[in-house]
Design brief:
- The complex is a heterodimer.
- Chain A is built from 5 helices and no strands.
- By secondary structure, chain A is mostly helical.
- Chain B has a domain of 130 residues.
- Chain B is built from 5 helices and 6 strands; from the N terminus they run αβααβαββββα.
- Helices cover 31% and strands 29% of the residues of chain B.
- Chain B has a 6-stranded antiparallel β-sheet with strand order 1-2-6-5-4-3.
- By secondary structure, chain B is of the alpha+beta class.
- Classes of the chains: A mainly alpha, B alpha+beta.
- The interface between A and B is large, with 27 and 46 residues.
Chain lengths: 141, 186
């Protein structure tokens, strides 16, 4: 038994690594091919660059500002359009009323003009002056 | 450049005065007290900036809207007060006298005056001109149950305006003439 113990002690005795052990291991690691990188990993690697990060943040900021400005401008346009539609309806109503009244006046004037034309077209002996008509009316009564 | 300074200065000084000529054709329509007595009221006040805005949204391919757009061109303001009453005697001639007195000021000319005692109706059309430039028009139509005052500031073609009657399909005031027919499209 003691012989086995001695052999085990010798076999399991701590041994120092040779001086060039680390160098040899690193050299063998360097010789190994790099692990394969997917396209997606290569794409994501771009964002680790500070210039790309800055550009992405700038573009995002521009998009947010443009979107906010665009929404604001659209709302302003909608408001302006609503006001314009109201003004348009008011103007059309005003013109409708004005034209109706103008035509009432025109019709009356036309009627008077027609009566005058008819009266002038009658032979002089058939024309009745207002005062003569009143006299004849009184005589008939 | 020095030669342009004086004419430019004179031009800039004259610009504010340009609009003032048209303002002479704006009359004060003070009939708000009639609104409480009227069954139907139409009050329209459209200033120059709103007229320009409305003109932008009037369609050129619609004949009625194109006609209105052509009429709006150059106008400075459109003002209408129309009151329809349930019964006669709700307004008096003194209510209208304040407006008529303004139309007797220098510059105004009554081009049409129609009175019908049988129908109890009186329609007057007044215009204001400065030389050959029309500054505005005022129409007063007084009937027993209806009073309408229209003031259009700016140059307007009255013939083309009268041709619009019955062509503008709008939600309308139930204005009735003395014969009982409704105004607007039949």
């Amino acid at each position: 038994m003691s012989r086995l113990d001695d052999e085990l002690k010798v076999a399991l005795q701590r041994k120092e690594a040779p001086p060039d052990f680390t160098a040899r291991v690193l050299a063998r690691v360097a010789e190994l091919p790099p692990p394969p990188v997917s396209r997606w990993q290569r794409f994501l690697a771009l964002f680790r660059l500070p210039q790309v990060r800055f550009a992405v943040v700038a573009v995002a900021a521009c998009l947010v500002i443009s979107l906010t400005f665009g929404v604001q401008q659209y709302r302003k346009y909608q408001e302006m359009r609503r006001e314009a539609e109201i003004a348009k309806a008011q103007v059309m109503l005003a013109f409708q009323i004005a034209s109706a009244k103008l035509n009432v006046a025109k019709q009356k004037v036309s009627r008077v003009a027609e009566k005058s034309a008819v009266s002038e077209a009658m032979p002089p002996e058939d024309r009745v002056e207002p005062q003569a008509a009143a006299k004849s009316q009184r005589k008939k009564r | 450049m020095k030669r342009l300074i004086l004419p430019l200065t004179l031009l800039l000084a004259a610009l504010p005065a340009y609009g003032q000529g048209f303002q002479k054709a704006k009359i004060r329509i003070d009939l708000d007290r009639l609104a409480s007595k009227a069954e139907d009221v139409v009050e329209v006040t459209v200033e120059e900036n709103m007229l320009r805005l409305a003109a932008k949204f009037l369609k050129d391919n619609d004949p009625e809207e194109a006609a209105v757009k052509a009429l709006i061109n150059g106008l400075k303001g459109v003002y209408v007060r129309a009151y329809e009453f349930d019964k006669e005697g709700e307004y008096s001639s003194s209510d209208v006298e304040g407006i008529r007195s303004q139309l007797q000021a220098p510059g105004w000319t009554k081009i049409v005056g129609v009175t019908s005692r049988r129908e109890g109706m009186k329609v007057e059309v007044h215009t204001m001109y400065e030389g050959e430039k029309m500054l505005g028009v005022a129409i007063i139509a007084a009937e027993p149950k209806e009073l309408v005052v229209v003031n259009i500031v700016g140059p307007i073609d009255l013939e083309k305006l009268s041709q619009l009657d019955g062509k503008l399909g709008l939600p309308r005031l139930e204005l009735r003439s003395v014969t009982g027919r409704r105004a607007g499209r039949e």
